[in-house]
From TrEMBL, chains A, B:
It comes from Anabas testudineus (Climbing perch). The keyword Repeat applies. Belongs to the beta/gamma-crystallin family. This is Beta/gamma crystallin 'Greek key' domain-containing protein. One of its GO terms (biological process) is visual perception.
Length: 198, 198
């Protein structure tokens, strides 16, 4: 299962430069919109990149599938600099696309204890490096409804582990079960989350 | 050089449980204050942990030296779940201590373009997953002055890479050069930073 579906239609001022070697070396390509398969551009893998403008989602596989990586403005010299500290080190990024996020102050999401929007619920509009520290009862979230903006959820506290990108303008903002969080999601475990900024 | 110096004197309600095997297995020990050398407790390394209360700083070596890791409330089943996505995988945590942070809304720090509090400056009181996206000119910070609370700075955007813990009640809150950020700091590179919450 992929979270691919459609390319975002919101018009964004975005710009990123990718390199096929670490430390901004080797073949270099510039992008101002999504790339569904980097191999079609004559590059076998992305090994470093600079985000000049906007927020992007990077993916392990082509067509926006597999492990997800949030990419915000700045310099990423190697795979370790954008990955989420996982035991699962595949070191591949084959596709990427801009993320359409809301005004930072207006981002809003509802968390549900159980899948299918059941159980205890909690509306969030801020960044949470530890959900448990802020009162959430356990280390799992059953389902999520994004009402505004784009968010990234993480397996572990302090924004570590697998990343799950949740957007208002995808799936109608509805993520009923971890199977809808991305093809790499294997459990309901989420211990930190934050808003994505442009 | 160590950032050790003294054990924090602020009285905190803190609690953490460490295990000498991954996934909360093996020998188990509970702590409500700092531990300067886990080997003195009969454990050769910390391989998983649960923070039940408070925020903590974990260290690669004994006596609060080496690579730093912020630990907030939640469950950490293996080294990868608290490390900062570094190429440098030593997989050791030998000491830890509570962090005394301010009321989250009152945290304040001044960033300086150059070392010794020189050059352009910028007062921050929020979390910044990308400093460049918020207007900071490059991928480095020359020096920092913590006026309130505790902060964590990261090499790469999105809270990745080496972690540097900066505290109001250590060094008088003054970090004049990267050599004062911790024994593992090798450059001025900082691309994201955030407040530490209890």
């Amino acid at each position: 299962m992929c979270i691919c579906a459609h390319i975002s239609v919101c018009v964004l001022h975005v710009h990123t430069t990718i390199y096929d070697q670490e430390n901004f070396q080797g073949k270099r390509l510039e992008f101002t919109s999504a790339c569904q398969n980097i191999m079609e551009c004559g590059v076998d893998n992305i090994r470093s990149l600079k985000v000049e403008c906007g927020a992007w989602a990077g993916y392990e596989h082509s067509s926006f599938c597999g492990q997800q990586f949030v990419l915000e403005r700045g310099e990423y010299p190697h795979w370790e600099s954008w990955s989420g500290s996982n035991a699962y080190h595949i070191e591949r990024m084959m596709s990427f696309r801009p993320i359409c996020s809301a005004n930072h102050k207006e981002s809003k999401m509802v968390l549900f204890e159980k899948e299918n929007f059941m159980g205890r619920q909690w509306e969030v509009n801020d960044d949470y490096p530890s959900l448990q520290a802020m009162g959430w009862g356990n280390n799992e979230i059953g389902s999520m409804q994004v009402q505004s903006g784009a968010w990234v959820c993480y397996q572990f506290p302090g924004y570590r582990g697998y990343q799950y990108i949740m957007e208002c303008d995808r799936h109608g903002g509805e993520y009923k079960h971890y199977r809808e969080w991305g093809s790499h999601a294997q459990s309901f475990q989420v211990q930190s989350l934050r808003r994505i900024q442009q």
